[in-house]
Amino acid sequence: MRWVVLILSILPLFANAEYQRNVARPVDKVVFGQVESARYFSESEIEYAKDNGLKTFLGAIAGGVIGHQFGGGHGRTVATIVGTVAGAAVGNQYEGKPYETHDRGVELLIKSKDGQLIDVVQDVDDKMIFHHGDSVRILYFSDGVRVDKEY
Q1: How far apart are CA 108 and CA 36, in angstroms?
Q2: Whole-model pTM over 0.90
Q3: How many whole angstroms separate alpha carbon 54 and alpha carbon 146?
Q4: How many domains does the chain have?
Q5: What is the tens place of the pLDDT at every residue in 1-25?
């Protein structure tokens, strides 16, 4: 009996696209087996908005335009500067702030019909919860792997 352990990660954290059940895709290989163990876990990550100061910049422009409407001569210049600074401050308040994301995953240790052990880590699908002893199929695609229950 030959034992092989493959670790494949298909978490949204590492992949750009989520697995979609309603999309037809060509399958390169199908392996049938039984779940030896299923370990569910969650990961938290701090994400940062990627606005790069755009809202601050736009706030400064809007504040400068509004400030320019008041006063005359040196007063207009001061009002424009104050409006620019105030607009930048307001825009900065709405700039992207860090936020936390939660990704749930499952690590499945599967014994294939030919006796190999295959370890797959994938995102959790609430409609497909795995337990010890479940009959499953491992679907190999050109860009990854997915485990589904065998029906």
Answers
A1: 8
A2: no
A3: 39
A4: 2
A5: 333 333 333 333 333 345 566 678 8
Give backbone dihedrals phi and psi of 86, rounded to 5 degrees, phi first.
-65, -40
- What percentage of the chain has pLDDT greater than the value 70? 76
Q: Which residue has the tokens 């010890």?
A: 132
Residues 106 and 143 in one domain: yes
Residue with tokens 């509004």: 66
Q: Are residues 106 and 142 in the same domain?
A: yes
Range of the domain at 125: 7-43+102-149
Q: Strand pairing of 135-141 and 117-123? A: unpaired
DSSP 61: H
Cα 4 to Cα 51: distance, rounded to the nearest angstrom = 45
CB atoms within 10 A of CB 30: 11
Q: How far apart are CA 4 and CA 86, in angstroms?
A: 63
- List Cβ neighbours of 95 (8 Å cut-off, separation of 6 or more): 49, 51, 53, 55, 56
The dihedrals phi and psi of 92, each to the nearest 5 degrees, come to -65, -30
Residue 2 in any domain: the answer is no
Same domain, yes or no, for 38 and 106? yes
